Each structure stands twice: as C-alpha cells, then as structure tokens.
Amino acid sequence: MPNPIPQPAMPQPAIAPPVERENYLNAKYGVWSWLLTTDHKRIALLYLLSITFFFFIGGFFALLIRLELLTPAGDLVQADTYNKLFTMHGMVMVFFFLIPSIPAVLGNFLVPMMIGAKDLAFPRINLLSWYLYIIGGVMMLHCMLTGGVDTGWTFYAPFSTNFTNTKIVEAGLAIFVAGFSSILTGLNFVVTIHRMRAPGMTWSRLPLFIWAHYATSIIQLLGTPVVAVTIVLVAAERALHLGIFDPKLGGDPLLFQHLFWFYSHPAVYIMILPSMGVVTEIIACFSRKRIFGYSFVAFSSIAIAVFGFLVWAHHMFVAGMSVYAALVFSLLSYAVAVPSAIKVFNWTATLYKGSIHYDAPMLYAFGFLGLFTIGGLTGLFLSALGINVHVTDTYFVVAHFHYIMVGGAVMGYLGGMHFWWPKISGKLYPEGWARLAALIVFIGFNLTFFPQFLLGYMGMPRRYYDYSHMPEFQILNVLSTAGATVLGVGYLLPMVYFLWSMRYGKPAPDNPWNAAGLEWKTPSPPPTFNFDEEPVVTWEAYNYDELDSPDKGAPHKEEVPVAR
Amino acid sequence: MSEHSNSAHAKSPLKMYFSIWAALLICTYITYKAAFIELGSFNAAVALGIATLKATLVALFFMHVWHASEKLTKLVVIAALFFLLLLLGLTMTDYATRPWS
Ligand code: HEM
Ligand SMILES: [Cu+2]
After folding, report:
1. Residue B77 in domain
2. Model ipTM value
3. CA A202, A204, A210, A214: dihedral to nearest 10 degrees?
4. Which residue among A66, A202, A286, A467 is the one 20 to 30 A from A136 at the CA level?
C-alpha cells in the first residue's frame, strides 16, 4: 500500500461511548417492527435479505448450467431441464436480483441520507414496493417448484404464445408484480430528489450517486410499464388467441421483440447506472479528489437513460427486421456508447494524480472499470451489423452481457456494500479478508467469462446443452466452469464476514473513510430520522481538497480511526 | 399539490367524475357500434382513436393532470408522451421500411 490515508499514530481515542446510542437498528425490536416499518433504512435491509436469497437461487441454477457444460455430451440433465435452468437463472438474476440490487438496497438506504432528508417522500409506498417484490418473488418460486419455464428470460413469441406448455403466465405475472415494485421505487426516488433536498443541496451539489439514481428512476418509470403490458399481451394471446403476435391471426412475432426490448435494453441501464453512481463515490473518496468533470458525469447519466431507449432493436438484427431500420439502430447503438465512455474517461481523469488508496471498495471499483470497459466495447462489436450476424446467439453475447452485468453491476454492488457497510451496520468488516475476496471475485470472474468470448467467436451457440459435435469446445468450457467455482467462493466470503462483523466487528466510527457526503456526517448506524438536526449544505460535492487540507485543522487527522 | 387539487375538488368533484364516467361509457358504446360498420383498415384506426380519447380523459380528470400546478407532474406527462412517441416512431422504422410484405 503506497500511501495510506493519514491516520493517528497515537492510541485511538475511545470510540464506543459506554451506552449505545439509539439508532435505527435498536430503536425497536421484534418481527413486526421490521415487517411494518416505514424507515427507508430498515426497508433497505429487508431488500438486502430478500435479494441475497434470490441471488443464491439464481447462483444455484448457474452452477447446474456450468456443470452440464463441463462435458460435451448432455449427460447431467435432460434437454428440457437445461432449457428451464437457463431460463430460471436469467429471470431470477435479472428481475429478482440485479434490477432491485443497488437501487432498492443502497439507493433506499442512501438517497434520503445523501440529500439530507429524513426519509423518502412516500415511506409507505416504499414498504409497499417491498411487499410487491416479495409477492412477485413467491409467485416466481411457486412457478419454479411446479415446473418452471423454458423460453429463456426473453419470452420470445411465438414459442411463448403458441408452443411451450410451461408456466408462462405464472412467470409473467410474477415479473409483472415485481415490475410494479420497481416502478414504485423509481417514483419514490424522483419525488424525493425533487422535493426533499436539504437547504443548500442544489442540483449541482448532489452526489453523482443521486444523479445516477435519478436517471435510473426515469427508466424504471417509463420503461417498466411497457414490459408489463407486453407480458399481459403474451398472456392474452395464450389464453384468448388474440392475434397480436401470431401471423396466422394477423399479428407479427417481431412486435413482441420490439416491445420486449423497448424495456429490456433500458433495463440493462437500470442495472448498470446505479453501479456507476456507486463507483463514482468510491473513486472520489479513495483518490481523495473532486470528481473530474462533475457535470459531464451527471448529464451522461441522463443521456444514458434517454439514449438507452433508442437502441433496442440491436437485439433483433437477425430476426427478420427491416435492414434499413437495422442500419439506424446500429448507428444509434454506437451513439449510446458515448456517454458511457465519457464516464470512463472522467473516472480515469479523477484517478490521475490522485492519492490512491487500495482499500476493498476501491479494488471493486477498479474491477468495475476494467470489466465494464470490456463489456461496453464488445457491445460495440455486437452493434456492428457485420459482426453481429456471426456472433449473435453465441457465447460471445453471453460473455458480453456478463461482463456488463456481473463484471460491472455486481462489482459495483459489492464495492458499495463494502464502502457503506460501516454506516449500515455500525461495524467494520475485516479489511484483509475483503481485499482477498475482491481479488478472488476478479480472478474467478475473468476465468469464467473470458473463455466464453473465445467460445462464441469460435461459434459455440448459446442455450445448447450438448456440444458433442464440437468436442474441441471442451477445454474452454472446463476453464469457465472452474472459474465459476472460484467466483462462487468469492461471493460467499463477503456474505460470511459481513455476518461475522455484525457480531464481532469493531464498532465503526461515523466516517471511517473520511469521505465527503452527508451520509457520513451522521452517526453509524444512523438514528431513525437520519440527522439529529436538519443539515444545511454550504459546500460543493466531493470537497476532498477541503477535507484533506492541513490548514483547515485537518479534521480527519484527529477525528476518527480509519477502517483497515 | 394539495392546495390546488383541493380547489378543483371544491367545484363539486362528484359531478365532474360522473360526467367523465358517462363520457367514457358513451365512448365505449360508440366503439362497440363502430366495430360493426365495415371500414376496412379504418376500423382499427377508429377504435384506437376512441381509446386514445378515453385515456386522455382519464389522465386529465381522474388523474388530475388538468388542474395540476406541479411542474413535476407536467414533466412526467410530457416525458411519458415523448417516450411513447419514441416507442411508436422507432418501431415504425422497421414496419415502414421492410422491403417485403
Ligand atoms: C456500451 C453500450 C452497449 C452496446 C453498444 C451494447 C450492444 C449490444 C448488442 C448489439 C447486443 C445484441 C447481441 C445479439 O444478440 O446479437 C447486446 C446484447 C446484450 N447486451 Fe449490450 N450493449 C451495451 C451495453 C450493455 C449494457 C450496459 C448492458 C447491461 C447492463 C448490456 C446487456 C446486454 C444483454 C443482456 C444482452 C443480451 C440480450 C439477449 O440476447 O438475451 N449491454 N448488447
Ligand atoms: Cu441492448
């Protein structure tokens, strides 16, 4: 570690006062105090528990998929079981883990704290959103236990409407209900960010985490209803033979793909934008610098949210759409990479000449930077019509979106969990273990997914359970399965030491990283209404130069011990 | 937001709600009748037109967009319409330019 955050050489001042002060965790006890809570922080924890549960389920399916692909022959499961495995894996991971992950856990916890509010604008709607999520989740579980679905997470018509006899309607309804939970979260964030900012917290002083969540909320509000309607249409077509997607009845199967991807491409930004917000906070803190190009980073979030709605048909290039429209969508897909690139360049510029600290959250942020960049650039490969024809529906696509969604979004989520864990739990996690876990995740991830780029390039199709006609694919598949095991260990570790730290961890000071931001100016864990008195903001975001300047009395030097 | 919707409510909100409801029912009846008149591809256009009118009534009166003083409400409405336009417009780039069919 080159240059650690300056920390006191003398013995640390007494940290924990003798009597534990009242905070949101110990304010009330009992199951009902949780299940009926309207405290955004408690709801965030409810979400944390539930999405972790679904992460395990999705991970279990992934493990089975990888085990099947260990050998070329389809020997572990049968073909239809395999179809169900990748379908349920995708549905659970996308709709029940990734979409709620950062917004519903970290966003719920932090949006009010970062803008200096007591709670979200609609606390009860916030609780309702968790219940909707749970209802959707239980429906999904029921659907899985009674047979599951085999269409892939994309529900493509006409297979979903006319042919498969699996539980389409039930899975669709589950996602429909969970979708409303997502809409309500977005609605709550938009109103909260507009209406509940503390005095002095102008738009240009908002942490970029807030801008990212604002952009995410726009997508949730405007996109989710479309997928909800699409699901209803699939159900209606199945039940009533309406003729929306069925050409025999005057429908058009590609209409399904248009409607589905109108939501589902922007949905990938629901997953990645909050992660970008997290990474922005982490990079500023651990390079001890103001974010380079604040307004560019802020507006690129909005640009991503808007441009993200203009590119959906890049999922349909070989499906039989008009070649002229394909041309337009290809060009627009190139355009959407620009705001993402703006962010990457600004993060890099922030790092430049920063005083960089390699704490665990920062390691995850570095992981994000590299993996997201690879994911984004391979997205450009896929947007090029000529290349797309060759690699669409191969493992290349699978690798592309896992680099973004797992390498990007999940890395950011884990980085954020580490960064704010002291605030959330009031305890410090073991830094050494956390760095080790970050390293394991990074290695495991690349070992799992990089071979898939090669496999796809060599022509291995996605969604096949048997590749015995091409035994030369095996070696890369073995690497990928081995990597998945490593990755699994990397994900289990934080789960273990976070739980451990809740009991045995050292009490966290209010601001263990000496970070800027209102959420650090309140005790860890925060009191129920976040701030003892309403904060008034007189400084710009990311004022690390002021925080670190020696002549300003260097508050951090004597204030608190540093978490490490 | 509260003051304004209150003043709107003060002018006998029930009467307003019921008349909108009646208008919606009449529109439904027209849709039903129109479906039996042979207009070729215009049948769909008529049905969609009436449906749009009904949706507009619901948004304006039942959802209080008409009397909204909030800038945020207006922003949401405009944004929603804009994205609907994107959905329809960009989808039409496909349907309008397929060299076959
Ligand atoms: C940087 C800009 C990006 C571009 C230009 C891009 C482009 C593409 C293209 C063209 C495809 C279609 C491949 C095919 O099936 O033929 C694709 C697939 C996909 N992309 Fe991206 N992408 C970008 C960013 C992202 C992001 C940020 C995410 C997620 C957070 C993402 C997630 C996905 C997913 C899930 C698929 C596969 C969908 C499926 O077939 O099931 N992409 N991307
Ligand atoms: Cu896409």
Report:
1. yes
2. 0.83
3. 90
4. A66
